[in-house]
Structure formats: C-alpha cells, structure tokens
Amino acid sequence: MSQVEVARLAGCLGNDISRYERGEKIPREGRIRRLAQALSVPESTLYTNPPTQSDAIRARIEMLLEDMSEAEKAEILTIMLRMAEKRQKPTE
Known about the structure:
Blueprint: H1 3-10, H2 14-22, H3 29-39, H4 53-66, H5 70-88
Helix pairs in contact: 1-2, 1-3
C-alpha cells in the first residue's frame, strides 16, 4: 500500500506519512488509531518502543470496544472490576 493510500484511509496527507516514518512529526493518538486501522495492525505496532504482550492485548481490547455500545462497555467494566476485587481479597 502506498503512502498516499494509507494517508487517504487515515485522513491525512501523503507527506504526513513520510514525516511520521522519518520521525519528523509525531501523530496524535486519534491519528495513530486511524493509521493502525488503515494498515490493519494493532496500534501498539506504530509506537517507537517495541510492543509488549500487554500492549497487544490493550490494542485488541481497544479495537473491540470501538464497536460496542455504551451498555456493553459498562458490562465489560463491571466484569473487570469484579475480577480486580477477587485479586485484592486475601485467600483464607
């Protein structure tokens, strides 16, 4: 895929892509998200530091959350909070 095609899909200019690649310009978080979607990769792969397993999981969760309703997001949060509470309780 060309820089122009990526730029079109991410909603920016072709020369922006070139500047991102050379490190002359740093994209904002929303642009990183759109670039990742355009390239079909997790957002974490676009950061300078190598992604960790947690980064990959976080990126996957973010992608899934984008398509969920507010009610579904609230349900996921409730589940995660319950899991966190279980970890914090001392075992008897």
